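Researcher: Re-running this chain for the archive, since the previous output was lost when a drive failed. Same request as before.
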Amino acid sequence: MIRCLPPWLFLLLPAMAQGAEAQTGGKDFNFFYSFFQMIAALSIVVGLILLIFYLSTRFLRKIPALKPANQHIRVLEIKSMGPRKALILIEISGEYLLLSSSGDQLVLIKQINMLENIEPLDESVVLPSFLSVLKRASLYN
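Model: Regenerated structure tokens:
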């Protein structure tokens, strides 16, 4: 939008600001009025952002191509095994496939018939607190 404005228009901006100051005499500055004006402008901008977000989510859900129900392929889990190597569990129309990704290749490892037969492992990893990591880092320095 700024590109379509003529360049000479920007030369008038300082004169317009100076003219506004000359009209008021430069003495009638009201802090409360300026603060209220700033809060009103901010609320209008935030309100417009929320309105656009609401309308876009409401109307974009009606487009059939963007609905999550139309997705026939779901990536269930990805486990990294190293740099550029990963195991990928996907579901395609009710079938579960375990794939291996390494560099430029994607290889089918196994087709899993029933996911219920697989016992999920409890990987409750206890992460150290930030304070303990900071203390450990300060010991090395």
